[in-house]
Write a structure and sequence with these properties.
By secondary structure, the protein is of the alpha+beta class. The chain folds into two domains: 53 residues, 2,3-Dihydroxybiphenyl 1,2-Dioxygenase, domain 1 (Roll); 47 residues, 2,3-Dihydroxybiphenyl 1,2-Dioxygenase, domain 1. 16% of the residues lie in helices and 38% in strands. It has an eight-stranded mixed β-sheet with strand order 2-3-4-1-5-8-7-6, covered by helices on one side. A hairpin with a 5-residue loop joins β2 and β3. The two termini are 31 Å apart.
Length: 125
């Protein structure tokens, strides 16, 4: 079963819209930023996150998916309604953590069967 489908299925249930951010664990965020700039990436956002760490988000010039130079790996998927998405995933036996409300939207984390971190993100409208 593919819980990360990109299209709405026949029962009109919600699905994640897209992979928005791929979090790459790096040892030194500034050195990593310099490397990715050389590869042709552009800085989208560079700010301090709620934990006091540097959040560096980058993308290729014509790309829509971004990377984040982070302290741990994860994949962030955009959804239109995080509460309904979590309800639907819970009904399928997939446990999702609590919703964190930040200035950048609502986030909730889950893990796949191998412990990979996935995150739902609902942008504020």
């Amino acid at each position: 079963m593919n819980i990360f489908a990109l299209k709405k299925n026949k029962d009109k249930s919600l699905n994640m819209k897209s992979i928005e951010i791929i979090m790459l664990p790096v040892k030194d965020r500034q050195k990593a930023k310099a490397f990715y700039l050389k590869l042709g990436f552009q800085v989208v956002i560079e700010a301090t996150d709620p934990h006091g760490d540097s959040w560096i988000q980058m993308k290729l010039p014509d790309g829509t998916t971004t990377i984040s130079l982070a302290g741990f790996p994860g994949i962030i998927c955009e959804t239109e309604n995080i509460e309904k998405e979590i309800e639907q995933l819970n009904s399928k036996g997939i446990e999702v953590g609590k919703i964190d409300k930040t200035p950048w939207g609502k986030f909730a984390w889950l893990s796949d069967l191998d412990g990979n971190s996935w995150c739902l993100h609902e942008k504020y409208k």
